[in-house]
Design brief:
It is built from twelve helices and 22 strands. The chain has helices at residues 55-63, 81-84, 87-93, 103-113, 182-197, 201-213, 233-244, 263-276, 292-300, 318-330, 349-359, 377-395, and strands at 4-7, 10-12, 15-17, 22-23, 26-27, 32-34, 37-40, 44-47, 73-75, 98-101, 121-122, 128-130, 135-140, 150-154, 159-163, 220-223, 252-257, 281-286, 304-310, 336-343, 363-364, 369-372. Strands 1-2-7-8-9-10-11 form a seven-stranded mixed beta sheet. The chain starts with a strand and ends with a helix. The protein binds MU-OXO-diiron. The site of MU-OXO-diiron has 8 residues, from helix 2.
Length: 396
């Protein structure tokens, strides 16, 4: 592997997972990386490890730079398995290394990997470890996005390693922001935020404000997934502030639906036309053809979500249930929710979806549109008008 240097004595030793397409349900069309970093001074520290099936590759990268028994410290910024599942092997291969995590991290590591990790030393915000000329310091970041999460900052080099924050699921042969297509980079960063960090938006804003108040100069942000921000690290910080506070929400609606024999599809198209007639951007996304990852990303910068389902056995179609369960956990704020659907004899899909959305605390517009069998021309006109009203509400 060509050596990847962030700053003198700071190397990327991570791995590229080119072919992962399903990251615990998050569809990763562009793969991912698990970034780990080696910091070498009089003492040597490894910050994070990688997913277990790439452990050998991590070891090979480390051995190009250091004898493993010369690694003094292992920092566990986050316990989720994509970053820690190589820890048991690495800990054995680095017998002289002290291991550090937050208090919650220690609990979680012991539960994941066993009592041998009772020896972990706990660090908290502001604690420092001197490597010689370089000093590591820590900033706890609970619920960004696990209780154990923390950031590591190298004071003299002004390098922040915030683990999952500011990452992207993006496999590339390049490592830095100035080497890749900016549109692809920001698209993947936005998808990552939408699907992983949305529920923690207020905490992210608070954490960014905390870092700003500490006046930490930042030359490089080195997350645990994807590209490292060295040319313009504030680009992703400012983007997060905009995303978290809803600044990038547009006059846009997403019509997300499924269909059995085409009736709900026809309704979706008429509703979409009605929305667009008001000068509002609209996206129609059919489930069982579009994964939840993409739908959620499209919804993040939308003002309205219009959800359609045929009735199946008096309830909603299963793909809608999956979608609503997923987005119910992410709880995007500041959107209106509208429902429509078709049925043969009993109906029930819109009622079931409305009840589910209300249960999540979404702002549901009660007036829904449910039609029997195949919509007539007159009924499609009503769907168009339903869309027009949604468009007008967005523009208001
Ligand atoms: Fe990339 Fe929360 O793990």
């Amino acid at each position: 592997m060509p050596k990847v240097t962030l700053k003198d004595g700071i190397s990327w030793v991570g791995v590229v997972d080119w072919n992962i397409r399903d990251f615990h349900g998050y569809i990763t069309y562009r793969g991912s990386t698990y970034n780990a970093y080696l910091v070498q001074d009089e003492k040597t520290a490894l910050v994070d490890t990688v997913k277990y099936n790439f452990c050998n590759e991590l070891v090979a990268h480390l051995e190009e730079l250091v004898n493993l028994d010369k690694i003094d410290y292992i920092i566990v910024n986050h316990v989720e398995m994509d970053h820690s599942s190589s820890l048991p092997t690495i800990a054995k291969l680095c017998p002289n290394a002290k291991i550090f995590s937050t208090a919650r991290g220690k609990e979680e590591i012991i539960k994941h990997f066993g009592a041998e990790f009772e020896r972990i030393e706990v660090v908290k915000s502001g604690d420092k470890i001197s490597l010689g000329k370089k000093t590591l310091t820590f900033l706890e970041a609970p619920m960004l996005h696990w209780p154990d999460s923390m950031f590591t900052y190298i004071i003299e080099d002004k390098v922040l390693m915030p683990n999952d924050a500011f990452g992207q699921h993006l496999a590339t042969s390049e490592r830095f922001d100035d080497e890749v297509d900016q549109h692809v980079l920001m698209e993947e960063a936005f998808t990552y935020y939408s699907n992983i960090l949305t529920p923690f938006s207020p905490l992210i804003v608070k954490k960014i404000q905390e870092v700003v108040a500490m006046k930490l100069p930042i030359d490089i942000i080195a997350p645990s997934h994807g590209i490292i921000w060295r040319k313009d690290p504030m680009k992703i910080v400012n983007a997060y502030l905009d995303w978290c506070t809803g600044k990038t929400v547009k006059q846009k609606a997403v019509v997300v639906f499924d269909t059995m024999w085409g009736s709900t599809d026809k309704m979706a198209r008429a509703i979409g036309d009605g929305i667009a007639s008001q000068g509002v951007d609209v996206k129609l996304l059919k489930l069982r053809g579009t994964d939840n990852t993409e739908v959620v990303t499209e919804i993040t910068d939308s003002k309205a979500v219009v959800v359609g389902s045929p009735t199946l056995n008096n309830g909603m179609f299963p793909s809608l249930s999956s979608f609503l369960t997923y987005i119910g956990g992410l709880k995007p704020k500041g959107k209106t929710w509208h429902f429509f659907g078709s049925y043969g004899w009993g109906g029930g899909a819109t009622k079931a979806m409305t009840a589910m959305a209300k249960g999540f605390g979404f702002e549901v517009v009660e007036q829904s549109m449910e039609l029997k069998w195949v919509p007539t021309a007159e009924e499609l006109k009503k769907c168009f008008e339903f869309g027009q009203q949604i468009g007008q509400k967005i523009k208001a």
